[in-house]
């Protein structure tokens, strides 16, 4: 049976893993390569490394960090941040990434999705969407808005429509981060995740708000997510993937165990 | 020495890195002569079946055919497994090697009255693992492996393991010296390393 994936995310700034709350108030959490291996050994199904300040500071992705992390990592490895062209993506794949995550650059130039996909396959392209509910709308979920540049800039685009366009342009997966719930550890935005998951055929990775095993069970069952991503709850030893999966299995969620 | 064929199709770096990690001497090649004289050949691949057209264009298809006939060990991974079949509806004009019967087809949009998401991405279990498989020898029952694909090979007489998603498909195929896996052993943690170790030790 296809299992629900638990993805450990490393937000990297200046070669160090950091964690922010609602995209600001950054604190240091350690070395990317070391943390990636610790997560994989603890049962994470995938690792995502996001160079969170790359777009904002106009810098390339940290190729040597990617190389060092990928060297002995034998689970799927995604890299995002600062990938603006098929050439940028090629450099990241050469360094050992299996997938790239593109966000601001895909919004700025949606053709990029197909350009990377045609060279490396759709499975290698994750379109990341940073979303904020439209608080003043009659339908705050349906009208949720896409933000770019690390959550700094609203785009006026609706999240569900952008997800559908990304799929049509050849994205292999959607990584949906709720800026409203990110870092709060109060649970994922299940309504928004379900809305996007129902609108597309490709897998949806839910992100933002993980605090407890119950939050994960909820986003898989009610939020219809195919995978869920979290960072801070793993970094500081609040829980590890194996303990989390034990609880998920008890809740009736199919997970990769033993791992 | 394992000759890993480079036809510009994705996961080459990861496969080579993993084989070397396991201690295997590995060379990356596009040279049909090296393939023709190889004792072990790995054909990785992820992405579009169309990419395998380059194998015929480079003269590698014939070299692989000759190597297999004289007993060289061959392992196809993902699209590399699909290439062992007659072809794929993904690129109908591009022929496969035809070692196994049947065409690779897309996952159905609906299965058992429900929508089926595609691509099939994630960790799924190996079922009906054949006891006499040399490639899968010693694997734990129900072991999980990582998949990412939209097309799949049918279950045939030489299927060595199946996986269930929208029905059964070939997870691994094996007949004598010819082997293939639809999953990514290079990304399947301990279970995947075990499979590649089995191949390295043949």
Describe the structure.
The complex is a heterodimer of chains A (259) and B (202). With 259 residues, chain A is an alpha/beta fold. In chain A, strands 1-4-5-6-7-10-11-12 form an eight-stranded parallel barrel, surrounded by six helices. In chain A, strand 1 (5-13) and strand 2 form a beta hairpin. The two termini of chain A are 15 Å apart. In chain A, helix 1 (32-41) packs parallel to helix 3 (63-70). Chain A has eleven helices and twelve strands. Chain B is an alpha/beta fold. Chain B has one domain: 3-Layer(aba) Sandwich (Rossmann fold). In chain B, 23% of the residues lie in helices and 29% in strands. Chain B has helices spanning 12-21, 32-36, 53-57, 60-69, 79-82, 189-200; strands at 2-5, 26-29, 40-43, 73-77, 87-88, 103-106, 110-111, 114-115, 120-125, 144-149, 151-152, 159-164, 168-175, 178-181. Chain B has a seven-stranded mixed beta sheet with strand order 2-1-3-4-14-13-12, sandwiched between helices. Chain B has a three-stranded mixed beta sheet with strand order 5-6-11, with no helix packed on it. In chain B, strand 7 and strand 8 form a beta hairpin. The longest helix of chain B has 12 residues, at 189-200. Chain B is globular and about 50 Å long. Chain B starts with a strand and ends with a helix. The mean pLDDT of chain B is 95. The chains are: A alpha/beta (259), B alpha/beta (202). At the A-B interface, loops of A face helix 1, strand 9, strand 10 and helix 6 of B.
Question: Brief description of this entry?
Answer:
With 259 residues, chain A is of the alpha/beta class. Helix content of chain A is 34%, strand content 26%.
């Amino acid at each position: 049976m296809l299992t629900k994936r638990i993805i450990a995310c490393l937000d990297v700034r200046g070669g160090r893993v950091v964690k922010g709350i609602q995209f600001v108030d950054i604190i240091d959490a350690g070395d990317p390569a070391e943390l990636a291996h610790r997560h994989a050994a603890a049962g994470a199904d995938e690792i995502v490394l996001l160079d969170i300040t790359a777009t904002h500071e106009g810098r390339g992705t940290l190729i040597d960090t990617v190389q060092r992390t990928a060297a002995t990592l034998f689970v799927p490895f995604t890299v995002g941040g600062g990938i603006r062209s098929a050439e940028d993506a090629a450099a990241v794949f050469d360094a050992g990434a299996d997938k790239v995550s593109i966000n601001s650059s895909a919004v700025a130039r949606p053709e990029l999705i197909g350009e990377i996909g045609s060279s490396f396959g759709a499975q290698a392209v994750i379109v990341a969407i940073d979303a904020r509910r439209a608080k003043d709308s009659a339908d705050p979920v349906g009208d949720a808005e896409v933000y770019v540049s690390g959550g700094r800039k609203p785009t006026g685009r609706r999240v569900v429509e952008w997800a559908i366009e990304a799929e049509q342009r050849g994205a292999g997966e959607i990584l949906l981060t709720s800026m409203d719930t990110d870092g709060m550890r109060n649970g994922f935005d299940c309504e928004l995740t379900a809305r996007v998951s129902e609108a597309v055929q490709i897998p949806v990775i839910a992100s933002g708000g993980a605090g407890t095993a119950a939050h994960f069970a909820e986003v898989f069952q009610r939020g219809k997510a195919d995978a869920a991503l979290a960072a801070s709850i793993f970094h500081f030893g609040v829980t590890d993937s194996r303990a989390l999966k034990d609880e998920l299995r008890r809740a009736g969620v199919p997970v990769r165990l033993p791992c | 020495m394992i000759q890993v064929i480079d036809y510009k199709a994705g996961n080459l770096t990861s496969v080579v890195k993993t084989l070397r990690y396991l201690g295997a001497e590995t060379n990356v090649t596009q040279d049909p002569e090296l393939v023709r004289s190889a004792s072990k050949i790995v054909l990785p691949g992820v992405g579009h079946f169309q990419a395998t057209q380059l194998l015929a264009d480079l003269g590698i298809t014939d070299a692989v055919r000759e190597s297999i006939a004289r007993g060289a060990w061959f392992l196809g991974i993902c699209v590399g497994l699909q290439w062992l079949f007659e072809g794929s509806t993904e690129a109908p004009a591009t022929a496969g090697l035809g070692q196994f019967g049947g065409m690779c087809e897309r996952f159905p949009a609906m299965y058992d009255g429900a929508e089926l998401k595609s691509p099939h991405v994630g960790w799924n279990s190996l079922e009906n693992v054949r006891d006499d498989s040399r490639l899968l020898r010693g694997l734990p029952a129900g072991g999980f492996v990582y998949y990412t694909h939209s097309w799949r090979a049918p279950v045939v007489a030489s299927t060595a393991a199946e996986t269930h998603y929208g029905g059964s498909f070939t997870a691994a195929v094996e007949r004598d010296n010819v082997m293939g896996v639809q999953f990514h052993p290079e990304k399947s943690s301990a279970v995947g390393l075990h499979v590649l170790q089995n191949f390295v030790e043949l």
